[in-house]
Amino acid sequence: MLITGIEPTLNTDAWRYQMHPEIWVLVIGLIAAFVYAIRVVGPKVVPNGEVISRKQVGTFSLMIFLLWISTDWPLHDIAEEYLYSMHMLQHTILTYIVPPLALLATPEWLFRLLVGEGRTYRIIRFLTRPVIAAVIYNTVVVVTHIPALVNRSAAGGPLHYGLHVILVSSALMLWTPICGPAKEWRMSYGAMMVYLFCTSLVPSIPAGWLTFATGPVYKHYDTPVRVWGLSILSDQQLAGGIMKLGGSTFLWGIIITIFFTRFMKGFFGDQSYSAKESSTNSQ
User: Fold this and answer.
1) Is the pLDDT of residue 174 over 80?
2) What's the pTM value of the predicted model, to 2 decimals?
């Protein structure tokens, strides 16, 4: 029998602990930079005003926590080696939750200090215009679901992390017109609703592909080690559900919130029985 190579050993312990010092460095670095900006730079830029609100501090803390748990053990390792559904959950957190929290946590003075007024400002302003941001983000979403790219990135850490950087960067562009620190960059509330609705449509394409596939879409995840007993098809269907229902429900939830808080705020008060009764009595 001719031996042409050595088969790699399959690790059957999906829950083995794996260190990710690069994530710790990232998280600690972000915290250190934020604290320095608030404690050292802020008082100089805003000597007589509020440097940061308590709500922004809480938002930043939540953002850091979600960034950490979504990119460290065990979620990252399960997502990279065993279950594509966890890969999808990871991407959902990194694109729908972490970026808007990061923007909401950033004080306006800090944002303006970072973007400046020159070329950097013009580039970022262009990339965060609604149509440009939406096209870039949705293109990244579609491209990052190409089987060849997914198989290769899941098999190698650097490429996987690189794609995460691209995803988060494009998501920051997407969310800036919604909740960016510079209020003049934001869209009107009606435009936000249309923008978010259109954004929720494109992920339906790869989500439907995953949900109705009759065979393995990504060979990398067709492993004999089945975490939680999920078959490859069940894993793909769950991934499609997370992408479609999870992401779309989140965006539609924001749309509904905007509609009722901004457009229907005074409607129920005007139409209530007590309001009508008071009007009748005054006559």
Assistant:
1) yes
2) 0.87
